[in-house]
Amino acid sequence: MAKASKYVSKQPDENGVIAWTDEENQIWSELVARQLACIEGKACDEYLAGLEKINLPKDRIPQLSELNEALAKETGWQVAPVPALIDFDEFFRLLANKQFPVATFIRSREEFDYLQEPDIFHEIFGHCAMLTNPAFAEFTHKYGQLGYAAEKKDRVYLARLYWFTVEFGLMQTEQGLRIYGGGVLSSPGETQYVYSDKPEINPLNVLDVLRTPYRIDIMQPVYYTINSINDLFEISKMDIMSQVEQAKELGLFEPKFPPKEKLAS
């Protein structure tokens, strides 16, 4: 999380307003239009209801104050402007205080299809709608509290729980497989990939998730499903840190992906 980014977040003015350029608003508009078409019939109902609640603009990047008004009304959450990349300590501190970090920059046209660091499109389109859901919001809050109190070596395990739920979580519904994870919802490639026969899709078991390695720069070889968004609320009430201890004793599963190639020095 601490590696450098070529992007620089925009600073809000004294009224909390960020001045976006016409080109940046245009990129947002194109990203939203493409992804709304892509997730049709694939996003979970809670996410779609959340998009309506935050009243997501399609023609311009929303101001954070607009999102804060909607989130405060639904779950008491807020969004907080942050630099392109923040460390784990700040990330957990924000979540523990019901503040979702939003990097205030948008990707360039050159990286329109994919960029590694989370931009404002990923954070808002991918995550903010779900934060209007009380069960999801409570899970994220509890996760932040756990992470903020945890030791560094335990945070690595907790990161996997976040990765396979908030970022890449899927849900089995009566209508079929649906997406609630922001990393999938904001990615056209990953949205399609989930419905191919390539990834392994397993029911979520917290201990299994804590033991599953992942890479951020590839399509996920494995996903975990919940049966209802309330499953996350139930997980938030579990003694997750005792599961972390168990995971440490049992060790990690064998990765289902090749090791990352080292760059020649």
Automatic annotation (TrEMBL):
Record flagged with keyword Metal-binding: yes
Family: Belongs to the biopterin-dependent aromatic amino acid hydroxylase family.
Coiled coil spans: none
InterPro entries: ArAA_hydroxylase, ArAA_hydroxylase_Fe/CU_BS, ArAA_hydroxylase_sf, Aro-AA_hydroxylase_C_sf, Aromatic-AA_hydroxylase_C, Phe-4-hydroxylase_mono
Domain Biopterin-dependent aromatic amino acid hydroxylase family profile intervals: 1-265
Ribosomal protein recorded as keyword: no
NCBIfam families assigned to the protein according to its UniProt record, in alphabetical order: Phe4hydrox_mono, PRK11913.1-2
GO biological process: L-phenylalanine catabolic process
Binding site for Fe cation: 122, 127, 167
Molecular function, one GO term: iron ion binding
Keywords for this protein: Iron, Metal-binding, Monooxygenase, Oxidoreductase, Phenylalanine catabolism
Protein name (record): Phenylalanine-4-hydroxylase
Pathway(s) where this gene product acts: Amino-acid degradation; L-phenylalanine degradation; acetoacetate and fumarate from L-phenylalanine: step 1/6
Reaction(s) the record says it catalyses: (6R)-L-erythro-5,6,7,8-tetrahydrobiopterin + L-phenylalanine + O2 = (4aS,6R)-4a-hydroxy-L-erythro-5,6,7,8-tetrahydrobiopterin + L-tyrosine
Classification via PANTHER family: AROMATIC AMINO ACID HYDROXYLASE, PHENYLALANINE-4-HYDROXYLASE
Transmembrane segments: none
Gene3D superfamilies: Aromatic amino acid hydroxylase
The enzyme's E.C. designation: 1.14.16.1
Cofactor(s), by name: Fe(2+)
Enzyme class: oxidoreductase
